[in-house]
């Protein structure tokens, strides 16, 4: 569990920033590219850390991957991909269409976070 603590903090920061940006979106306020960039970096680094834990922790121990670990990595990877798709489609689609992609991104990110918590507590 101790090897999961940095990842927990990282994913919590990404989740918190994403929730705050989602709240700003619902209030129809503009997005700050710096916040989006930090959210992107936190999400990609969090995904990378999940994959590293599946392969082996920095201290040499390997986290039991199982179905929860692999599902966590898959769902978080899909959340990162839909996050990129949101930024691309927001320029081409209407606000309602891009809002659907953003909602899917938020759902996948939240599901990935909950799966990570279940995986971390299962160890």
What report would you give on this structure?
This protein has one domain. α1 (5-26) runs antiparallel to α2 and α3 runs antiparallel to α4 (95-122). It has 123 residues and is an all-alpha fold. The longest helix has 28 residues, at 95-122. The chain has helices at residues 5-26, 33-55, 66-92, 95-122.
The biggest sheet, with number of strands, parallel, antiparallel or mixed sense and barrel status, is: none
Structural class: mainly alpha
Helix content: over 70%
End-to-end Cα distance:
7 Å
How many domains? The number is 1
Helix-strand pattern: HHHH
Radius of gyration: 15 Å
Residue-averaged pLDDT:
86
Number of strands: 0
Number of helices: 4
The 3D shape can be described as elongated
- This entry's quaternary arrangement is single chain
The stretches of 5 or more residues where confidence is low (pLDDT under 50) are: none
Strand content: under 5%
Provide tags for this entry.
membrane, single chain, transmembrane, 123 residues, mainly alpha
Write the layout of secondary structure elements.
Layout: H1 5-26, H2 33-55, H3 66-92, H4 95-122
Helix pairs in contact: 1-2, 1-4, 2-3, 3-4
């Amino acid at each position: 569990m101790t090897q999961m603590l940095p990842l927990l903090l990282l994913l919590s920061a990404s989740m918190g920033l994403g929730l705050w940006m989602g709240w700003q979106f619902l209030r129809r306020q503009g997005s700050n590219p710096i916040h989006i960039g930090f959210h992107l970096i936190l999400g990609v680094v969090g995904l990378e850390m999940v994959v590293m834990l599946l392969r082996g922790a920095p201290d040499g121990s390997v986290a039991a991957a199982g179905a929860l670990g692999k599902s966590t990595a898959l769902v978080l990877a899909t959340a990162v991909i839909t996050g990129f798709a949101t930024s691309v489609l927001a320029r081409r689609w209407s606000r309602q269409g891009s809002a659907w992609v953003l909602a899917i991104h938020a759902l996948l990110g939240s599901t990935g976070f909950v799966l990570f918590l279940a995986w971390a507590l299962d160890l």
